[in-house]
Amino acid sequence: MDLKNELSEPSRFVGSMAERRLQESIYESECMRLPEMPSIRSAGAFVQNPTDVRANVNRLLLSRRNAPLDERTLGGPALPAYLRNAVIALGNFDGFHVGHQAVVLHAIALARARGVAAIVGTFDPHPVSYFKRNASPFSLTTLSQRQQLFLSAGVDAVFVFPFDEALACATPGEFVGKCLADLGGVVTGTDFAFGRSRTGTIAALAELGAKQGLSCSAVAPVSADGDVVSSTRIRQALARGDCAAATKLLTRPFSIAAMLRLSTEFEPTKSGTAASIDFGPFVRPKAGFYDVLVCGRDRCSKGVAHVKLSANEPQIDLVELVIHGSSQWTDRELVDVRFIKYIRVL
Known about the structure:
Elements: E1 10-14, H1 22-28, E2 33-38, H2 50-55, H3 59-63, E3 69-71, E4 87-90, H4 98-114, E5 118-124, H5 127-131, H6 143-153, E6 157-162, H7 165-169, H8 172-179, E7 185-189, H9 202-210, E8 215-219, E9 223-224, E10 227-228, H10 231-239, H11 243-250, E11 255-259, E12 261-262, E13 272-278, E14 288-295, E15 300-308, E16 318-324, E17 334-344
Parallel strand pairs: 3-6, 4-5, 4-7, 5-6, 7-8
Antiparallel strand pairs: 1-2, 9-10, 11-17, 12-13, 13-16, 14-15, 14-17, 15-16
Helix pairs in contact: 8-9, 10-11
């Protein structure tokens, strides 16, 4: 399938629960609701009319959307009745780009056809972070960002599989038997691998799943401009300052959720406010100046961001901001900084 150029209808970005990373736990503790941003659309036309499809969802499922996130572990508690036989889209989904959206939308369409719940299962921390503890920051999204993007796409619940030693060492059979118990279907990308040393293949997933009544589907990659869409490709676009390419593949601007620190050197004026944010776990875009949109709880303002990167100490990387306009911003306010366009080098 090939990616079209249009962006989608806007959706909401909401923080939700305490997570492992400090920046995310600070963000989520406020249950922050940020203004609208471009987000999900049907990449593969799996769900041609989401409104009609969602209208058929059981009311019990809808009533539980206020607490949709569940942490699942090996040998954890059984699924609640309303999620049994659900269809789960399984993957890391960092960035939740158009290829990931195709997987999730296929799971939603399959679930609606069966009259069951649609779930996304994701992993935290990312397996790369677990196996390479000193890896450079690479995240395109935090867990809470992904959660809300999943819900905006139309799923009924989000499962988080803690990627720890137990999960890393689980055999493919243990993973399917314990983590996917009581489910009715699983949908992945064609490159999905699981189990100890990534020994679980799509074929193994189908064989193991069949033994417990679990159907398996693999969704083909989405291509754009002749190449497969991937999180790596988006990181590469950001590394060269190509915000337009990243936005196209993500279907929304790349954004950093962080705590705003007002400058102690420059007082806010009618023309703007000087501030900064830390990168935290996010991938670093190309150093230089960007047009950005800074969004708080109830407002958005245009601004200019100066991305300053150190040579060997990513923990001190930061984004200096000049936020245009007379809006009153406060120190330690939680914001979403959306990267719109690269302006120039340092």
